[in-house]
Amino acid sequence: MHIQRSVLLFFLLTAFLSGCGSNAGMDDTGMPETMEEAETAEDNRTPTEADGSNADMAETYERFLNGELTIAWKKEQVPVAELFWDNDIEYCFCDINGDGVEELHIRDSVAYYAVGVCDNQPQILSEIWWWHEPEASDAEWLKKLSENDLEWKERQLENFATWQEAYAAYIERRESMVSEYASYALIYVDDDEIPELYIYTGGMATGEFVVSFYDGHVGVMNRERVGLQYMERVGLLYSESGNMGFNPCNIYKLDKGTFSEIGTGLCSEIYDEEEVSFEYFWEGCPVTENEYEARIAELIDKSACVELAELYTKEEILEILGDYGE
Description:
The chain is of the alpha+beta class and 326 residues long. It contains 7 helices and 17 strands.
């Protein structure tokens, strides 16, 4: 996930730098030569340049992160919690466009936003969602980005007293990110008495999510495919569904509310005229089919995995959550 973040941060930086820093219409001192050019420069200011002091901007950023200020997104004003799938985010401050003012950068496991300030209001400068692994050609940029020493801080967007409250709020907050065909279920992945929330977003691009609640903490796992299975009350999840001859295998573990990927493989279909053959990889290295299956068996018993029995609409799952709270 950190590799994905780094690659897309590069594209974000490139987008910013390509649109900023022009010296057209400036004299040798960097000042506009005419009143007309000054007015043009005024109109072309970036959001951060158009605002007040650094102290005012810092206050605006803090109020935004606290959910006290909304931001324009998809033609609506939304709080920061509606921008992300995860409830836990990371943020830092960094001057991207070289104007001497630091912008706010926020990310979770799915999305990345750069935020500036205009008229004491937060404004999205750039938005990127990462759904795919980076290509090998991005390796050099990854090296450069890894040398950028940014101080990322962790933050929880919302706090909840009960898992019912957390799941209901999560469903409502992320409604704009799922399709009208989204469906939900409560499943028992680990061995405690709190179920996990399963979300099928209604599309292959966004795939499916599993949300956990542990000690007030909301954890989220996303697989950008469908067909997830799990070993009930064992804490293991598994899927190897794909499309167009590309079938990734992902094995996840849920422990104390935190998801981790403990195994990654790939079965790739190779077409040669009318014949089809298969190539297998585990953790990026080529393996035989028997080795591939053996690596999976070391981590999870596929025969013991169960599929989702029943899915509910948003209205139905919210009613079920309400019934639990009574």
